[in-house]
């Protein structure tokens, strides 16, 4: 039975991920725009009717996430897994410009050049607002590369879904884990979406920073937002520098450990702190950072890029195999136990989600409904002390 949760309560309870699905579902009533806190949020001009509310509750990834018969065996920490690998693009330009090993961009180029899709729909820097993001269409390698690199700022890839469908043909979609989960959940009540969007790719995500994060980077770089001609958060190396170039041609840079580790991670939206899916469990293929490091912690030293590549569906596994055979990417098998060393944050957050949710429930807050994500099992294995610490931290945050 569909849960009775409204768009208004998702917004008020801080559960909105900012994916934009509600704008595509109810274009006459919902517009997604930046709010004062620098996050993309729906603005409702008229109340949704009963059928629309039901559609909303079934689809919105902020309201809930649920797996229905994943194709691959489910790993409690890492989701449905057909295969785990590391890899990189064999095109040096793609590898360099990509965020990690450029595997996502390489797969997109392969899909276009092998004519498996007519276009790719993904996020790029907004030409009118270089620290912002826009959903874009790419039809060749050069256009795909303009979208390479992580953009640690709000994006609402699903807000443009109807416009993308109106272009005709089949396309590959790239989005954050919550965007892909929203798309998958929408496709359950609108099956033609799966036919029109045969490839859904994602990446691991520690959370979406507010636009204020990018502005804080600029401040530290002593660049005024109005001066910025282009801005990249990462890419051009691994992890690559945050780079602002001004209209006057001045270039200012900051390393990843400083930009992510001391600025952006302080601006994450609330929903990301109770996210059980930072690893793209609903995607066909996920790309992430295959960090090297010591003592279980990534060191973020500059190196040639290397991606973690998880295939989750038969479609995703076939795509990876074909891209290898066609010479677009190189991959190496990776033991599943190695993932936690590369992604300790993702491991810890999923284990602690249940304690955080419990604290919210006890304060009477609306919480998302997460099903078949094995959160209880993970919490039980997470240790009493850590669970308590997370429970108290969240309780403090909401009670006081
Ligand atoms: C907010 C955020 C948080 C992240 N957190 C983690 C993490 O915790 N662990 C980890 O391993 N990796 C994280 N990443 C992903 C990582 O930085 C790389 O994107 C991933 O390793 C894939 O690298 P690649 O070289 O294959 O991708 P690329 O070839 O560089 O392709 C990246 C693709 O992602 C799309 N994209 C970039 N920014 C956004 C955005 N804001 N919204 C939607 N789509 C976007 C681009 O359009 C492009 O198609 C995060 C990325 C983002 C944007």
Key structural traits:
globular; 19 strands; 400 residues; eight-stranded mixed β-sheet; binds flavin-adenine dinucleotide; 22% strand; alpha+beta; 17 helices; Aspartate Aminotransferase, domain 2; three-stranded antiparallel β-sheet
Total helical segments: 17
- The CATH class label of one domain is Alpha Beta
Globally, the shape reads globular
How many β-strand runs? 19
Percent of sequence in beta strands: 15-25%
The quaternary state of the protein chains shown equals: single chain
Ligand identities: flavin-adenine dinucleotide
Tell me the distance between the termini: 35 Å
Architecture (CATH level 2) name of one domain: 3-Layer(aba) Sandwich
Could you give the order of strands across the largest sheet?
Answer: 8-7-9-10-14-17-6-18
Kindly name the structural category: alpha+beta
Q: Helical residue percent? A: 25-40%
Q: What's the CATH topology label of one domain?
A: Aspartate Aminotransferase, domain 2
The Rg value, from CA coordinates, equals 20 Å
- What ranges have pLDDT less than 50 throughout 5 or more consecutive residues? none
Main sheet characteristics = 8 strands, mixed
Query: Average pLDDT, to the nearest integer?
Result: 96
């Amino acid at each position: 039975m569909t849960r009775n949760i409204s768009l208004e309560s998702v917004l008020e309870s801080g559960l909105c991920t900012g994916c934009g699905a509600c704008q595509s579902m109810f274009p006459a009533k919902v517009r997604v725009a930046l709010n004062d806190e620098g996050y993309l949020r729906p603005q409702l001009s008229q109340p949704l009717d009963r059928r629309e509310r039901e559609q909303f509750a079934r689809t919105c990834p902020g309201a809930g996430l649920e797996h229905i018969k994943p194709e691959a065996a489910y790993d409690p920490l890492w989701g449905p897994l057909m295969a785990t690998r590391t890899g990189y693009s064999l095109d040096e330009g793609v590898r360099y410009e990509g965020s990690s090993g450029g595997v996502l961009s390489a797969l997109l180029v392969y899909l276009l050049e092998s004519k498996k899709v007519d276009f790719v729909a993904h996020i790029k820097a907004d030409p009118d607002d270089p620290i912002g993001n826009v959903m874009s269409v790419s039809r060749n390698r050069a256009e795909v590369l303009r979208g390479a690199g992580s953009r640690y700022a709000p994006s609402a890839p699903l807000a443009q879904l109807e416009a993308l469908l109106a272009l005709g043909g089949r396309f590959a979609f790239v989005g954050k884990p919550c965007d892909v989960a929203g798309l998958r959940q929408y496709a359950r009540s609108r099956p033609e979406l799966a036919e029109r969007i045969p490839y859904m790719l994602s990446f691991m995500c520690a959370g979406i920073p507010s636009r204020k994060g990018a502005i804080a980077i600029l401040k530290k770089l002593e660049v005024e937002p109005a001066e910025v001609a282009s801005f990249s958060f990462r890419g051009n190396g691994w992890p690559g520098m945050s780079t602002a170039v001004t209209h006057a041609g001045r270039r200012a840079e900051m390393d990843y450990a400083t930009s992510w580790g001391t600025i952006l991670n302080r601006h994450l939206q609330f929903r990301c702190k109770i996210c059980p899916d930072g690893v793209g469990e609903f995607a066909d293929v996920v790309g992430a950072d295959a960090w090297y490091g010591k003592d279980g912690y990534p060191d973020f030293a500059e190196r040639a890029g290397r991606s973690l590549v998880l295939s989750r569906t038969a479609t995703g596994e076939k795509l990876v195999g074909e891209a290898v055979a066609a010479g677009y990417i190189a991959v190496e098998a990776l033991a599943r136990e190695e993932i936690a060393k590369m992604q300790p944050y993702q491991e810890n957050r999923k284990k602690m989600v249940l304690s955080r949710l419990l604290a919210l429930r006890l304060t009477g807050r609306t919480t998302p409904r997460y099903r078949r994500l094995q959160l209880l099992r993970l919490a039980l294995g997470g240790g009493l002390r850590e669970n308590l610490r997370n429970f108290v931290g969240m309780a403090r945050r909401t009670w006081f």
